[in-house]
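Q: How would the structure tokens look for this protein?
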Amino acid sequence: MSNYKVDLSDAQWREKLSPQAYDVLRHEGTERAGSSPLNDEHREGTFHCAGCDAPLFTSAMKFDSGTGWPSFFTTLPDAFKTSRDFKLIWPRTEYHCSHCGGHHGHVFEDGPKPTGLRYCNNGVALKFVPQAAPQTGS
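A: Here is the predicted structure in token form.
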């Protein structure tokens, strides 16, 4: 039993996710830069976790970092838990969905104002939900 609201077995995660999403979300993999269609997503809406559908970012938080991965300068409240990653020579701050534990990416201190942060997210770990069009009266 985990400390997450969404707690599936490894077999259930494999069945639920595409092979690439499974590698990123469950085994901290990284997708190839520039490969995500969400890199060019500019509509208003919300970015959700591809593993559990928890809302993580709004489109107003997204910016073009030039890195080839969807990037955000902040998150929705309580969306992520962070930890230190020592897989490379220097330590990095890694972030995981606070609802299912899915790995999303790393946060860096080279982002724009107002936070100066860059949440560098694997696009395959996200699902975009466009903002509903306003209803017009008849």
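The longest strand covers residues 80-85.

The chain has two helices and nine strands.

Upvote if useful.
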